[in-house]
Amino acid sequence: MYLPHEYGDRFHLLNDTYLLSLLARIGSPETGIRGLPGLVRSAYRRLCSEVLAQEFPVVQGRVNTRMTASEPRAFYEGPLLCRNTKLIVVSVIRAGILPAQICYEIASEVVPTGHVRLDFLNISRTTDAEGHVTGVRLDGSKVGGPVDDAIVLIPDPMGATGGTIEQVYKIYNSIDGGRPRKIVAMHLMVTPESIQSLQKNCPDTEIYAGRFDRGLSPAKILDTIPGTHPDQERGLTEMQYIVPGAGGMGELLTNSWV
Fold it and tell me: Region 228-246: what's the mean pLDDT?
């Protein structure tokens, strides 16, 4: 279910051919504005179901079925996701808008509506005069209340530098009233640079990814298990774009090129 790596227990790299096939289509130059949203929706349905199954508390429950009216033994008894656990999905504008909505809808299928909410953060990259990414800027937000003991999901499709997750991590750990139970980053693609930065600056964050992109690493490094030689792994161009990556995810999802 997961690929081996040397980045520790909090990095979960899925070994899912279906998801990898979706990601290949997502990044293909043949996939345009009309085709991309459906592919992203399918990819995040797969990723979010995995995260909920792995990170949500599990309880033993008993639920009647429609057959119970005629047969009293017709009930399900077994493991269920804990419906009393609070869940917060963070929508980071703009590439994270659709993924967050998808995760919110999926979570609402198994978590009571009173225990799941969707927050919005407007975080954008900052760049220098040469166009290099220098950090992120928080322009505005809509946080729907306390975060104490809640699981916080951050669906960020392209885990490039880790800056977006680090900013969200800081925000949600500084809200009055208590800290989250856990914070989970959910990437379709992630770079070694992002993993290393998050492990340094947000060490208790769980990281899930559909693909580990280190396409700028030397050929001999590409033949090794990820994380064996982290100092030689590279997935970002000088302009901080992922290789192989997908290119223009936020622009294509919103048809906005500014």
Answer: 96
